[in-house]
């Protein structure tokens, strides 16, 4: 029974309505009321399950907030199915299978409700309901704070989730609410979460903090748009995006995050504008997987509290930074893995303790008109296949301006390095690179330092006031017998450090009759005046034989069926070539391939080796690999897609065009999608230039089967499909063993068995990374090993190298 009475005030004029009266229960009053009536509830506790089905006003007495408690023993305390007004009530629920307040239809207004409950959800909005919820408070330590599901929507203004046992605000099933000036805190799940196709969350002026999990989580093709919001003090990543998620952040602040401030995976897309990211324990931006992309404009990333790069781009992801600032971090930008790319325009990378820009494992970085200042190393292109361009950049106050090593081959043009303590540009260990119109001033060492016989190219460069000399070419210098192979043209120096200045005619280029690529006067040499040295033509780097490349393929862990397929295809091409040489007819072999399988199974690596094999057999001119995905091919308006596709095809001319996640060009709900234009252009180019480029399309097995079935024109261009199976536990163990050997670690007795058990038990869902997972496991072991060994006063060599079972991370 109710404690207190209910007064119903009749405001209408219809004579058939019941007159004003008092009722012993809320249910009776609601039954008696008609549209437009006002129900004023007397103070007390009501053990009723209320259902509001008419457009009435249900409210507590004025001046006594919280004096009316709706607290049934079980079920839903308050259900709203009409465009009613509910105000000044205190709602309590105890049913873990039901929400405390359920809005099922209409456009009701919920105002000044205090919901203290242990229910499935504090407030749940579903179906066609579009409520306006103002100044409501939810305290639900057992479940979700606010759930908007199954197409629901509405506006939440100045609401607060003070506690939640799961997500603070959860959006799913195609729902699309808007939050304005709301606060969500002390949750045991994500602060804000949106998941599922067509699910969309919009938040303006909101704050998310004190969250045991991610502050904002968008997954499974969900979308979210946050403006002027704060996300801080989480226990996990600040913002997490996974599986085709889309998020836009404008004028937001993400800070005090112990893990990654923002983590994106699996084709997610993030757009940031005028947003700050600071005080993060791991990466400020952590971006993984092909098709995953970040576009940041006028953003600031700074004040790292950990020892990780501020921006991490790997596994084929793309990051674009425009007019951004990254400062006070251990490392600013790390780009690694083939297909990964970073484009940085008009941005500042300053106060970097280690390396401002690191490019490795075949990745690409493009920096235009950027400023790098106060870093140990300005930019480091680390290994074979890694490259990109620095154009119009300034590097000031570093130890070394730009380092190029181990076969990396960037283009550096119109860049200035000022006051490096060691060298302006340093090329070693087989590094290459083209340096055009570059300048080094006030170096504490050399301006340009090229050793190990590296094949760098310097044109129209200038050095001034370099303490040890403008140019240093070790191993005898360019053109010396057995010496380096650098090409130097039209370069000048003031020959500082006590050396006689070079006059204009001494710094002149070689006469026009001399062939290009020969070394003219070398300015800045630490010798007396010398005559121009004539260098031999640049030697060509010998291409590997198909046998050598196949040997590298055989050395890869696992992939036995893939190796057989590639060998069979290679044998057919080789025999066909020999038959032609003998004047016999050769069977026509289509060289285009389809690669199917999960991420991390070696598809890109095998594509690179396949191109090199075809080049060694004379089938392709160069054999290089150009990796693209939908974002590289599909434009934003009619005609632009054909141009992008043509440009990608031209870059791959003489080599392999590798299209990862090719099925994204033909989505199931394509409609007017421009991906079809890319497919049509590609099919025509493959036909018109069938001998110039080999095309490989790749992706998940099921999706690629669908892609080929709905595009017979594409399917007809490919000779065969090669399936890349997931790695088994034993193969993952072998990858870790290889990683350990490469990095001079050893597995202690029992560690291999522990790893085998770990890889057997690790969840292998859709996002399982195969080889990437093995690599991440090794990296986690090294990190835990470092934390353990750092506590030893004088560790032995064995302490420094042995990895033990306790170094394994926890299972996810």
UniProtKB/TrEMBL annotation:
Q: Region (Disordered): which ranges?
A: 510-543
Per UniProt, which keywords does this protein have?
Answer: ATP-binding, Nucleotide-binding, Repeat
Carbohydrate-binding/sugar hydrolysis domain location is: 41-172, 313-474
Residue span, AAA+ ATPase domain:
589-728
Cross-referenced SUPFAM superfamilies: P-loop containing nucleoside triphosphate hydrolases (SSF52540), Pectin lyase-like (SSF51126)
Q: Which Gene3D superfamilies match?
A: 1.10.8.60, P-loop containing nucleotide triphosphate hydrolases (3.40.50.300), Single-stranded right-handed beta-helix, Pectin lyase-like (2.160.20.10)
Against InterPro entries, the record matches this protein to: AAA+_ATPase, AAA_lid_6, ATPase_AAA_core, Beta_helix, Carb-bd_sugar_hydrolysis-dom, CbxX/CfxQ, CbxX/CfxQ_RuBisCO_ESX, P-loop_NTPase
Q: Which PANTHER family match?
A: AAA-TYPE ATPASE FAMILY PROTEIN / ANKYRIN REPEAT FAMILY PROTEIN, AAA-TYPE ATPASE FAMILY PROTEIN _ ANKYRIN REPEAT FAMILY PROTEIN
Protein family according to the UniProt entry: Belongs to the CbxX/CfxQ family.
- This protein is called what? Right-handed parallel beta-helix repeat-containing protein
What organism is recorded for this protein? Streptomyces gibsoniae
